[in-house]
């Protein structure tokens, strides 16, 4: 404050300029600097204090002189401080006469001592006392005296504006407040600035209409912008909605099409505003039928432009749609409700207040209006927004229950059509249950839980005290939602209630088991699962088509059983179940565990099943998911299960371990990987009955190629053993892969045993083929027919050749058999490639050298 610039303090700069120090604003700023500690005894570069640059004719001379005296008279300051405290205590105690007497004495003491600063404070305090005594003229006079004593005292200006307002001199009050703000905005705290602005805007609505437009321009001052959020917050808290309307809408009361106001504060952040005070305001002004003309447009800008419609509540339990309904019923204006951007969901009302009341309850319980037509209008709007009247409140009452039919017959009829009572209520219950089911299937547990609460409200009180299947279903679904949202205590309560409402429902006991299992209460969980299985068994006849449900319960029994027995598989799980479970059902249990990769449980069930008498029934299970090498590495015993499923008719051609695989190649790999040949043996048994064993993969590899080259992971079985199993299917050992390799070419040079097996099979297959070839050439009906056709075609061609050409070609007649052989091979090559290839090779190797024979060789190649 006392920083010098070129040897001058801020006070020196002001007092040296005679034009500035003689203006009102100059005097005010000098006063502010003095009050905030600017030193009076500091000398400039010329060795002078500030007072030495003034004359007695200057108003600031007395101000500076008094300030200088006050700083020296510490005894006087102590006396004034004591007087101010005594006066304040008397004022707070309501002893106004004593406070008036004390402040009057204080004014005299300050005046006698020339302490203008404290004199201004005493005048302001006495003005407050006069205000409480409703002596506003005297209060105004004291405020003006305070300004004369110290024009830098901002509270004196506020008090003057306040007294002018109370004297209904609104225009003067408005000017006083704003002028005070302009003078003190740079040195006052935000709270004092906001006080002055609020004083001005509260006075504004009462200014004569012919002056309003001119005065409003002053509110557009940019220096006010930073204070508008706090001003709006304070005004809303004090329920000054008329003033807020001017600040948001400006001088217009039209509803803006884009919800944009045109007032001085329309674009300001309104998130701190207390919107609930609207209801206090409209209650106090309910006799004024014109209130909604400007209040509704104001709220539309605040709620929709600033997207704060969710904050529109009457109290903490409220929801915005309830508040909008209440507003419509009190004011008779439904525009706010119509434009409220909130939609209900048919048959599910997620917009319930703290008493579980829907917006319709607000209508039928309202104490604001008995206008049936207005209430009907509100009902129609809510119906168009898909809000349901079928939800019950905490007293389990529908909205319609609060209406006397004879008094509101039309409204009662409208609500009856959309309420969930009677047959309509049952329909809504069913639709809610279906919606809950869909939401749970979609794993939207939060929405499903909200739907469950809505569904509960469709039940009467009596339903809560007795067995009820639908109510049990709702509680079961609610438990599932709670459990998936990890609300275990709520899930346990809901599951228990589900069992209580329908003790014979297997699904209710199953859900209770799930909750207990999750909470690691294993023995009660096991009991619940067994109860579920028994109840399901009582409702079915074994064997049953509903095997999937039984399988799911058995899986849970197995999982809990393993926890209770600490993974000890010696105990017989069947002994826990009061009726026998067939082997075929355990097959599905094992298959399900394998698919879920719960291999601990799968191994237990597989071991358990070895002690049962296996039965072979027709099954249709996809084997491909059981072939993964990662699965087989952890659970090689799965090979026994696959072999069993093949014997039960499952399609072994689906077996595959890699892309573009063949089933026989996959089986060979799986056998070498696990050392268990059962699947290979079963597949080869099928191939011996007529299946094609010589199929190849995209690289041209047959099962023998894979058997010759595949790395053996488990040495429980030898390569020669696998090859011996394969050759029994008459697989062709002469097939070459895309690299031109035979299976025998891929064997390791030291693997003499496997090589011997393959060579023996190859020799056998060659002899067999030679015999077949000879017999085929002589007796194949297809060959005879196709050769005859080729011969006829040749004869027709020869009849057209001139005799001269026949004479020239007599030399080459010995190639006629070669031509016949070529023609025959050409017709049978797709049917019997082996026979055709052999004949063509013999043809190419013949020693004919004629041009005609060379052409035949070329075409043969």
From TrEMBL:
Q: List, in alphabetical order, the GO biological process terms annotated in this UniProt record.
A: post-translational protein targeting to endoplasmic reticulum membrane
| Keyword Zinc attached | no
Instruction: Name the InterPro entries for this protein.
Output: Ankyrin_rpt (IPR002110), Ankyrin_rpt-contain_sf (IPR036770), SGT (IPR047150), TPR-like_helical_dom_sf (IPR011990), TPR_rpt (IPR019734)
Which PROSITE patterns does this chain map to?
ANK_REPEAT
Query: What does UniProt give as the signal peptide span?
Result: none
The alphabetical list of record keywords is: ANK repeat, Repeat, TPR repeat
Which SUPFAM superfamilies is this protein grouped with? Ankyrin repeat, TPR-like
Question: What's a GO cellular component annotated to this UniProt protein?
Answer: membrane
Any single GO molecular-function term of the entry would be: molecular adaptor activity
Q: Where are the ANK repeats?
A: 6-45
Q: Which PANTHER family match?
A: LD24721P
Name this protein carries in UniProt? Uncharacterized protein
Q: State the organism named in the record.
A: Mytilus galloprovincialis (Mediterranean mussel)
Provide the organism lineage as a comma list. Eukaryota, Metazoa, Spiralia, Lophotrochozoa, Mollusca
